[in-house]
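This section describes the prediction task in plain terms. A model, or a person checking by hand, is given the sequence of a single protein chain and must write out its three-dimensional structure as a string of tokens. No templates, partner chains or ligands are provided. The sample shown here is typical of the held-out split.
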Amino acid sequence: MWRRPRPVSGYLRRFSTAVRRRAEDEGAWLYSSEWWGSDSDDGHTVLRSTSGKGNGVVSVVAYPSSRPSRMHWSGIERRLQQRCEEVDPGYGDGGKLRVLGYQWRVLRFNDVTRQSTAKVMATYRENMPGIVYLMQQPHCLAVPYVKSMVSAGLTTIASCNFDIISALQGKKNMHILCIGHGGGSLPLFLASKIQGATVHVVEIDPLVISASIRAMGFPAFSFKTQSGNRTAAKPDIIDEIMWKGIHERIYLYEADAEEFIVNNTNLYDMIFVDAYDGEDIFPHKLWDPDSLFLKALSNRLHPKHGTVVVNLHSDSDNLNHDGSFPSAFEQVLPMGKYVSQVCRSYKDVLVGKGGSGLAFTVAVPWVCNTSLIVCRGFGIDGEYLNRDFVFNTLISKSLELEHVMDLPFSCLEYTKR
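The expected answer:
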């Protein structure tokens, strides 16, 4: 989840500069007015139900998207037709796939918090216009904090002697865990960009999972039942056409994060944590240094280059260190105290005092969020203890990744803050 800050001139200046540089990014902040909503445009609610897991009213609201424009739809349809012929030459007998349009889909809790934003493409077959296929666009990251997590996280693990280039090319396996699913934009982006990635996703609320699949175009084949099996023995042909195997490298589990990680035996190269409930609270057990969760997380993180990225709010009320609610006086204390507590917990448990690694935070532009990055292995050589060397290494790697991954946004912009 994220929160929008009060308008200030500094944010507007950064906004204008970024737009000029990266106007080709369909998820650029330039287009945020299309999906943020306003008093005059509340969007169209396509799903609404009450959660049984403490998230309150879960809804998905649709808004029109101006990109890609209609002039590009014919080219997209040609690529879809080529893909149909590659997967199943006989599939076209039901008519060509046509683009119906593009929409933003916003996942909300209690009609207030925006938990996730995704762009979806709607298509149909000429001979069966009544059946509409939704596909989330994996290349499009609309929310700045997700771009921050991706940019800072991948830059960091690449700086820890992990061969990220081979993973991107599919020559090396990379195991990633996402705690908190939302609409699924983060795991889809990672699986689409990193050919060697296997992405596990943990989400406690079955309603959120259902909303992402039914209303936000997340691939249904990626969901695993509580018995550990896929919902289908093999993907539908339309899934093969749309996803090109991405959906087969994502495993979405309905589970409590603590229980999942405690009972897990996998070793992960990267772990992303973005888990907020209906009250917009980051559960205390997910950052309590004495919790089973953090201790188990430490055991499941690769000892040489393991990297954890956590999305944190910079301006919301939070529980005290012991899990109790703050008093009226404590609530007015600066958020720096809360962020520093979470950072200290993750660093102490995952790296240890005097351990080989580091922890740092990155401010997210345009929204009041902070990305916490904790990694192992950065400090193996004595020279890495030099702050300037660490900073220069991160900057260099961010520029390299931006080029190699062909990112539509500036990786450096979300790393140097």
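For orientation: Residues 144-414 form a domain with the Rossmann fold fold (CATH 3.40.50.150).
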